[in-house]
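Report of the visiting student (M.T.), summer placement. My assignment was to run the structure pipeline on a short list of targets and document each run. The first record concerns HIG1 domain family member 2A, mitochondrial.
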Amino acid sequence: MEGDGSTSEQAAVFTELDWITLKNDLGSAQIQTVETPMTKFYRKFHENPFVPIGCGLTTLALCYGLYGFSRGRHGSSQKMMRLRVAAQGFTVVALMMGIAKTSMHAASG
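After the run finished, the structure tokens were exported:
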């Protein structure tokens, strides 16, 4: 019974020291992989370029449609709102394809 108490004390000491070492190891790894917002944008754009393109198309169609509506051009405004819906659909499909590609890459590697 004395062995059981000393074993649990040794495990507790090992666990306390182990998390400190783990924290130091993770901290040094995180310092090496700091990326700026611009480098993150470039990395994400190269991974799946269709999502930002779809977002840009959606924004342009929305802005041009609202501009046409404010100028009284209801026909062109209606076409732009339809284009906006199509661009949003394109963006969602591109996002889902990127997620599928990433999950397949993670499963194979």
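The helical segments are 2-32, 37-47, 50-70, 74-108. The chain has two domains: 1-34, 35-109. I thank the supervising group for their guidance throughout the placement.
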